[in-house]
Specification:
With 361 residues, this protein is an alpha+beta fold. It contains 13 helices and six strands.
């Protein structure tokens, strides 16, 4: 019986290894492929070792280690590696149909929190955090680590009775640069206007369309978003302007490649960014995001764009996928027709999530 259970575990781990290897093979750069292979397998091995030491499931720990940075190596995008990796592998784990819902939740939560090394979470979250820091150190012992990572590394070394041959000088000062008080909404409008006027076409041959699609790790994403990329255009502009968000609000129903996700996000208690024309003196301004209501279809909140200017009768907007015709444009729309509301993001907004992550399985 134990041999059968071990064989099943190996098959599951091997299945995830194949998944990760296929992703690595798809990477263009040989050096990046080597880096991904070394890093992901290194964190996986350290995770398995720590799980053995701490009496946890080695197979699950090894799988978490393999998948913890999947989004970054899939897309090359550094922001939100934990939340975005969890969201990327969530449907992959589900569709493999070899993990229970409880196991999927354990894996996804550990991946989600893997970058939050200043707080203590569950056993598997702490395993992958410690394994990540160990991999950084053993891959390059002269690497400059943050003070919290040095402290974490020191605790793991003591746990494993490994001599501490590093000093306090190996960490950086942890000084954060003072955030400049820039008008990011104005920057958002500038970026949207420039991209809108470039008449981007939603086909893989257009490099600018590929950049808009790059955030979304789905298979065949160019076709998935074709004639349906207005929200992806807004997301790209926001990311470029410094309004950085994960591809999906942690407990949201949809990814921000869809208009509904933007509407939901703007109404969260911690945002409250949804506004209505004429309500409490609100007037659309440059840099607002406009959500349309049954503009092109009979479906609510069916389109989205970015406001560039406003007068008594019209708004000047930049949109990706104008009128679902698969190209970007800058043009005027009727200010009083088919508009649900506007999203005005605070210039000092920074995404922060401290709640309970409950992945949709």
């Amino acid at each position: 019986m134990s041999e059968q259970m071990g064989s099943k575990a190996n098959k599951r781990l091997d299945s995830v290894r194949v998944l990760v290897q296929e992703m690595i093979i798809s990477m263009v750069s040989i050096l990046q492929r080597q880096e991904a292979c070394v890093h992901l397998n290194g964190v996986s091995n350290f995770s398995s070792m720590l799980a053995k030491k701490r009496g946890q499931n080695q197979e699950l720990a090894a799988i978490i280690g393999l998948l913890h940075d999947y989004y970054y190596y899939k897309t090359g995008i550094h922001e939100f590696p934990g939340p975005n990796s969890a969201e990327t592998v969530r449907p992959l784990l589900r569709d493999m149909n070899i993990f229970t819902k409880e196991e999927q939740t354990t894996i996804l939560k550990a991946i989600f929190h893997r970058g939050d090394r200043s707080r203590v979470h569950g056993p598997y979250e702490e395993i992958v955090k410690d394994a990540y820091v160990m991999q950084l150190y053993f891959q390059n012992s002269s690497r400059i680590l943050s003070q919290q990572d040095v402290s974490r590394l020191r605790n793991v070394f003591r746990e494993l009775a490994i001599p501490e041959d590093f000093s306090d000088e190996m960490h950086d000062s942890d000084k954060r640069g003072i955030l400049q008080n820039t008008d990011r909404r104005s920057k958002l409008a500038d970026i949207a206007e420039a991209l809108g006027r470039e008449n981007i076409i939603g086909v893989p041959g257009d490099e600018r369309y590929r950049e808009i699609c790059n955030y979304w790790p789905d298979q065949g994403i160019y076709k998935v978003l074709q004639s349906n990329w207005c929200a992806a255009f807004v997301y790209h502009c926001c990311m470029q302007a410094g309004f950085q968000l994960p591809i999906r609000d942690p407990n949201g129903m949809y990814r921000l490649a869809g208009v509904g996700a933007w509407l939901d996000w703007a109404q969260l208690p911690e945002t409250g960014f949804l506004c209505f024309d004429g309500q409490n003196g609100f007037t659309p301004q440059r840099g607002d995001i406009v959500i349309y209501e049954k503009l092109l279809t009979d479906v609510s909140h069916d389109h989205i764009g970015i406001v560039l200017a406003c007068d008594d009768k019209e708004i000047l907007v930049a949109e990706g996928n104008r009128d679902n015709q698969n190209y970007s444009s800058v043009f005027y729309r009727d200010r009083w027709r088919c508009i649900l509301g506007y999203i005005r993001i605070d210039n000092d907004y920074r995404f922060h999530f401290s709640g309970d992550y409950n992945p949709i399985i």
